[in-house]
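Weekly structure sync, notes
Attendees: PL (lead), two postdocs, one rotation student
Agenda item 3: pending single-chain targets
PL asked that the sequence for the first pending target be pasted directly into the notes so everyone works from the same version. It is reproduced below exactly as submitted, 386 residues in total.
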Amino acid sequence: MPTLSTLAMQTRKAGLRLLTSIVGMLHSLLTIHTFRTSKGTGNDNVASETEYLEGITAQRALDVIQKFLDDNPLAITGDGDAISSGAIMLATAVKLSQQSRKLPTSFKLPIKVKPFSIPRRGGSHTDIFLNRYRGNKVAVKRVRTYTSDWGLSPEEKEAVRHDIFVACLQWRQLRHQNILPLHGIIGLAGAAYVIPWRERGNIRYYINNASPEPDTSQRMKWMSDIANGLLFLHKNHRFHGNLRSEKILISDDGVAQLTDLEMSSFTKYWSEHRIQGKYLGIRWMAPEVLKGANRSPSSDVFSFGLVCIEIFTGNVPFPQVICTEACRQMMNGERPDRPETMPDECWHLVKQCLDVRSLSQTYHGYVRSPINASVSIESGEVGSLG
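Predicted structure, written out during the meeting:
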């Protein structure tokens, strides 16, 4: 006679298969609509699939998918059925959100920012407010570029806003110790999202202000943390696209975590209306991206190499020159000098990141830190060398 645990497992698998089937049907429906929209129906009296999905059906579907992903945090990266089911569900949620302009109900948080509040911190294009959510400190990060008057039409502003929220929707599903969690969004003017508050700030700020100063072992550990986070993204067919020290925060227990994931998808709006290095992080961009190519896992690896130099210098790449001159030097094949305190093995890794730029070739199968942590590139596993 089956045990209760066996029955529960069978019930869960049956529910997963049913939900996957439903999601598959939705995904097919959205694909059909996309094709029909691109071709045109030629009949204004025929209601499109999107018009049907824009109602309560779309909202319910998004809520069901998000509930499953919240209850099964490893669904995106699990084994067997879970990996395909989670990937299909997330892809469907993204497409459904894009076409219906809706978001999961649980994604919108009941957090208020008082009018005329003064930001506690700020980035090149964001204001960061300290708030609380479920008893914990959180950062409410508002994208300032959206509220700036760059001559965008109301439709373009709404497109930027929803692009940011869709990016957040994808980011929220990525669970890893070196990825900063995303709680959700709030209805602040423009676009604002909620993440855990990190008192220590970004990695460069912490390096320059910590007492005592981080030693070589700690800096190498942070390199390993960042590599782990990037490998997790790349293994799951994603990339950061805007990696630099401001996008790496230090947790209370000293772990480096990547933040602002999936945000490179809407930088076209910024670059079209304000071409300035401080807004686009161009000092960390790979030469091919500076020349107009799309960002990729390979460009992530290049940026990672520059971040490693930053970790040992506490300064930006080519600090002695302005952004445009730094870009010119980078495109001409020049690279930052080796930091005086960087060990040989780290410098060897950095040189390969800036030249080879293939994860499997760059790391030769492993990235090792002084605490015997390792990352296997071929298998994507994180383990210990013991």
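Discussion points:
- The longest strand covers residues 126-133.
- Residues 23 and 89 are 6 Å apart (CA to CA).
Action: rotation student to compare against the earlier draft before next sync.
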